[in-house]
Every structure is written in C-alpha cells, then in structure tokens.
Amino acid sequence: MTPQQLAAMIDHTLLRPEATCPQIDRLCAQALDHGFCAVCVNPVYVSQAVRRLTGSPVVVASVAGFPLGANTTAAKIEDARQAIDAGAREIDMVLQLGALIAGEKNRVRDDIAAVAEVVRAASPDHVLKVILETAALSPELIALGCRCCAEAQVDFIKTSSGFHPAGGATEQAVRTLKKLATPIKIKAAGGIGDLKTALSMIEAGADRLGMSASVDVILACEALSSRR
Amino acid sequence: MTPQQLAAMIDHTLLRPEATCPQIDRLCAQALDHGFCAVCVNPVYVSQAVRRLTGSPVVVASVAGFPLGANTTAAKIEDARQAIDAGAREIDMVLQLGALIAGEKNRVRDDIAAVAEVVRAASPDHVLKVILETAALSPELIALGCRCCAEAQVDFIKTSSGFHPAGGATEQAVRTLKKLATPIKIKAAGGIGDLKTALSMIEAGADRLGMSASVDVILACEALSSRR
C-alpha cells in the first residue's frame, strides 16, 4: 500500500472539545498536504473547514449526536442538516446505545433512518456513517446494531466514537462488522495511533480510518516506502 | 447536615450513553425515595422522567451540547427547547471550550446567552447551568468563563461534564468558582463518589452536587446521623 493509497482512506480527525480555530486551520492544511480523504470536525467548525477546503478533493465530515448518541432524533437531524447546509459531505452519527442495549430495535433503526433521510436528500454523494461503540457491546448487540444500519441503508458503520471509556477500534471488531454488515463499508476509529495498527485495521477489512495521528502515520508509511 | 438537607442539594444523575429505560425508571424511583433535588438525564429520556416525577417535588434536568459543547448554538437551543417542551425544568449546557481557550469571549458569551434566553423565556423557575470543564482550564480561562456566564446571567456554573479525561470537580475548582462567580450558584459534578467528597464540595462552596453515587452517599449520611 502506497502512502497515497493509505492517505486516501483516512478521515483526519480533530474532535477534542478544546480544539481551537487555528488548530482546525492546521488540520485542513495537513489534509491538503497529505491527500487525506476528509477532515472530521465538530459542528461548530464545519463552516471554517469548508472555507479552507473548497475546490480541493478533501471533503468535510462532521458529527451528529456525538459522542453519546443520547439526544433526540430531532436534535441529531438538526446537527446533520446544519452541517450539510454549511458544506459538510459526510455525517458521523452515534446511534442510541441505550435503546440498542435494551433491545429496542425499531427505536434504534428509526433514529438512524431519520438522519439517513436528511443525508440522502442532500445528494447521492453525501455519506452517512453510524457509530456503534463496539467496545461497549456484546457480539449479539453488535449484530443487532448492524441489522438496524442495514435496514436504514447507511453507507458506513463506524466502530467507535473515540470517546468511550471502554475503548476504540479493535481488529476483532472490524472483522465482525465486515462479516455482518457487507456491503455497508466499515470505518475503524478510536485509538489508531500508529502505522502498524492502521494497516492491521485495513487488513481486517476497514474501508476508512478515523485518526488524529494521521500525519505521523503517513510519515511512517512514506519512510517505509522509501526504504523499499 | 441532615440526610434530607444533603439530598435536597443533589442532582441524581445518569448520563452514561448505555443507560436504558428501566434504569431511568429506577433513577426516578430513587429520587422520590430519597428526596433528591432533581434527576439529570440525557435528552432522549426527558419525557420518561417527567412522566415518572410529575406531581412530585423532584424536577427533571437535562443537558444541551453535551458533553463536548462543540456543536452549534442552534443545536444547543434545539436541545434546550425540546427538553423544556418535554417538561425539563433545568438545563445543563456545555460552553464552547475551544472558543474559550482561544480567548474568543464574545463567541462563548453569545452561545451561552442564546440558550439562557430560551430557558428564561420558559419561566422564572427554569434554571440554566453552564458547564466549564474546569479540570481542562487554567485559572485565567476559568475566570474568563465566569465572566461570560455572568454577562449571560446564568443561574449556575458547573465544574465539569463528568466525561472529560482531565477529570471532574475538585475542592479547589469549587472554591475558585465561588470566589469569582457569586452570586451565580455553583454545581460540583464529576467524580464525587463518596460522602466525604460530597461534604468537602459543599464546604468549598457548592450549592448543588451532580452525582451518580447519590444513593450510596445518602445511605452513608443516614448511617452517620443515626450513630450520633
């Protein structure tokens, strides 16, 4: 895998609540430099990121109901609609984890489907990713989450918000999602801090990677390529 | 301090994203049993909590822009408005931490003021608490946050969301807020897990405590009282 191929799979991510405007500018500049697929930023920074990236191949992703997924469907729709109106092309939403754990399948699916409708109405190129928080779920609940996502016809299932104390992406979780959810694509996110881990996620079936350590990972990949 | 007096200062809190409907019912029953001031729940559970607590002195608190504070003002307003429409009497919102860190005072204040307007329009009894995330802030930034809250005329400043890796409430943070923000009231939240810590927060100046360990703390307080 070349550094360019790897970069094209990365959502260069800065979702820490302490992130400032200058840090978002830097994130966008790095995405342009290295050819990342997208930047992923909190809703309050979508307009700024869109201004920096307009005319480039780098798209802006933002989040809805993030990171708990425990606000109302109407609020998630509002998050998604505002981000899309401001120019975001991809929405990473968190599903209703509590409802999933309680086995309330319709509630989980309807919440996702309502946001999916907003995203699909924007254009066929807009993308919805649904965050499952796999580290906090049993295999049975992961399977139930995948069924909800399939019924709501989402584009990606994403392993983790990166904010849950139970942890982020694992190879095992990516393999499980890949097996259960194909043809829905898989985004691995949360705790992917080095090249080895990034490549192992792709090996396990990830189509996209969410990372903050993206620049270090790409530099490591370039160093490895140039030694070959 | 009697157990009753302590209970009347506690927001009995369940904001974990895994919380299920039966757990919210249990939270409400505990609040009724022990005479807590409020339950604090995620937006998705406001209606349910209101149904369980209508006609009792226990009020329902919910959250806006929680726990990152990095969504748009319009989305925070939507969170607050929906919670109030569903019967919530108190809103705990997170301020724009990144803007505060960047020193963008007007942006921080205007975000708070917009939500304050929604809360005040509901009734004089509705309450707005603003979460500062003190563990992630320097003393200077805490002071700036307090000025923003004072200008927006909020009811409470709350130390922490309870979700930030930097930590929750400390006695020092409560003392600092008390000194800087009076007459705004102080809510200590995040990591208050036992009676000793709860009492130390009150000693430091807290007017309200946000806790998940509320029942254990009250039982410990009752045991202590009965031994006297």
What this model shows, in words?
The structure is a homodimer of 228-residue chains. Chain A has 228 residues and is α/β, with parallel strands linked by helices. Chain A has one domain (3-226): Aldolase class I (TIM Barrel), CATH 3.20.20. Helix content of chain A is 49%, strand content 16%. The first copy, chain A, has ten helices and eight strands. The first copy, chain A, has helices at residues 3-7, 21-34, 46-53, 73-85, 97-101, 105-122, 139-151, 171-181, 195-204, 214-227; strands at residues 10-14, 38-41, 59-64, 90-94, 127-131, 156-158, 185-189, 208-211. The first copy, chain A, has an eight-stranded parallel beta barrel, surrounded by six helices. In chain A, helix 2 links the parallel strand 1 (10-14) and strand 2 (38-41). Chains A and B meet through helix 2, helix 4 and helix 5 of A and helix 2, helix 4 and helix 5 of B.
